Amino acid sequence: MDSIIQYITDESIKLWDRRDRRTDGWFLTESPQTPVLICLSYLFAVKIIGPKLMQNRPAYELRGVLMVYNLFQILFNGWMFYHICRLTWFNGYSFICQPVDYSDNEDALQLITMGYCFYISKFIDFLDTIFFIMRKKNNQITFLHVFHHASIPLTVWIVFRYIPGGQASFLPTFNSLVHFIMYFYYLMAAMGPQFQKYLWWKKYLTVFQMVQFFLVGLHGLQLLFIECNFPTAFSWYALVQTVFFFNLFKNFHSNAYKQKQINNNNNNNNNLKKIK
Predict the structure, then answer these.
(1) Which domain holds residue 177?
(2) What is the maximum span of the chain, computed from C-alpha positions, in angstroms?
(3) pLDDT greater at residue 77 or residue 138
(4) Cα–Cα distances in Å, from 176 out to 89, 100, 181, 194, 274?
(5) Of 70, 81, 122, 275, which residue has the fewest beta carbons closer than 10 angstroms?
(6) Where are the alpha helices (DSSP H) in the chain?
(7) How many alpha carbons fall within 13 Å on the CB side of residue 115?
(8) Are 9 and 121 in contact (CB under 8 A)?
(9) Is 229 a domain residue?
């Protein structure tokens, strides 16, 4: 037993020694325990504390707060998307094989800054769930929603501490674009019922997220078949995670569509009964 513990300890030290030391000292990134503890606190807050505090309270409308929050998310994610693209895909990056630039040149250091902003944004996203709880929108606090929010920060931490750039830039690029569009929808929804007629594309949000996971998984999969100076362990990790999330979102989309069909059929039956 002692030898097993010693082996795990030694391997953990070796793994930690492989980190990108340029990211040492950044707030909330010093060890994996930090995002883990924050995510566990999030789970405790949204599953226990939040519902208990709101149990005997009326739902808050939060219309103004949501409009400001969604506008901030639009601007923040749009800003990240632009700068990540500027530093990578519009700057000669290859979609096939792009090793991480571990140098101290200006573009590489700017990309680290954008990676850190992306990491922090995953904690800001926790407010989505907090607002659902305060508005008593419990039907939107699904397993998919909570698990997605609670697990992504650790993935982004791994990317930031070990591979802040290169092939790994594809994830924050596409994800910031998805969030830009998603929060634009939420902003319009928060502006009132008069904008509902412009929200016909709601059903495509989940499809867009599924496309994101498919492309991120495909982008990582190719590294298993070509020679590239990029850790294949991350490719396996990204592939497993994207397949898992793709299926979760696919099931969510299918169930939501089936429920809508059932509701439409019930409404049609009720209308027929009224006519009779």
Answers:
(1) 33-265
(2) 79
(3) 77
(4) 14, 20, 9, 28, 48
(5) 275
(6) 2-17, 33-44, 50-54, 63-87, 106-124, 126-134, 143-162, 170-190, 203-221, 232-275
(7) 31
(8) no
(9) yes
Q: Which two tokens stand for residue 213?
A: 């996971």
Tokens of 155: 């993935």
Residues 6 or more apart in contact with residue 137 via CB below 8 angstroms: 59
Total residue length of the chain: 276
Which residue, 209, 235, 200, 104, is CA-closest to 113? Answer: 104
Backbone CA torsion sign across 202, 205, 210, 214: positive
> How many domains in the chain?
1
Nearest to 160 by CA among 246, 73, 234, 243: 234
Burial class (CB in 10 A: 0-12, 13-18, 19+), 142: middle
Contact 210, 249 (CB under 8 A): yes
**Does 265 or 216 have the greater pLDDT score?**
216
Extract the tokens encoding 11. 């391997």
- Residue 275 inside a domain? The answer is no
Annotated active-site positions, please?
148
DSSP 8-state secondary structure symbol assigned to residue 47: I
Residue 40 lies in a domain: yes
121: pLDDT strictly greater than 90: yes
The confidence score (pLDDT) of residue 1 equals: 65
CA–CA separation, 168 vs 234, rounded Å? 9
